[in-house]
Amino acid sequence: MTKIYESPDGGRTVYERDIGCTSRTVSREDTSLISQMREDQLWGDIRRRARTHPGLQAELERVIMFYNLIKHDNR
Fold first, then answer.
1. What is the C-alpha separation between 3 and 28, in angstroms, rounded?
2. Does the model's pTM come out above 0.70?
3. Do the Cβ atoms of 7 and 14 come closer than 8 Å?
4. So what's the pLDDT on residue 65?
5. Are 24 and 6 in contact (CB under 8 A)?
6. What is the pLDDT along the chain (75 residues), one digit of tens a residue?
7. Cβ 3 vs Cβ 16: under 8 Å
8. Do residues 17 and 3 make contact, with C-beta atoms less than 8 angstroms apart?
């Protein structure tokens, strides 16, 4: 059966339930996945906000430039 995953607290606690059921259990999802999802959401929020905030856009461009300069550096 297909599962639904819900988190009423922004990902700190993840519940699992079957479609059509109201009872749920705490999911045993990997916490690193939850952390990665939070970080992805943060970067998405930063990129969206940078569209309307010149200062944030400038800083984001600096970070991207710095990343591009070091991404092939294997040190």
1. 13
2. no
3. yes
4. 93
5. yes
6. 688 888 877 777 788 888 888 888 887 655 677 777 888 899 999 999 999 999 999 999 999 999 999 987 766
7. yes
8. yes
Q: Are 15 and 7 in contact, with CB atoms under 8 Å apart?
A: yes
The answer to whether 13 touches 27, Cβ cutoff 8 Å, is no
What is the enclosing helix (H) or strand (E) of 64? Answer: helix 54-70
**Rounded to whole angstroms, how far apart are CA atoms 38 and 49?**
16
Among candidate residues 4, 29, 22, the one with its CA nearest the CA of residue 12:
29
Q: What is the spatial distance between Cα 38 and Cα 32, in angstroms, rounded to a whole number?
A: 10
45 residue type, one letter: D
Residue holding tokens 């045993």? 28
Q: How far apart are CA 54 and CA 63, in angstroms?
A: 14
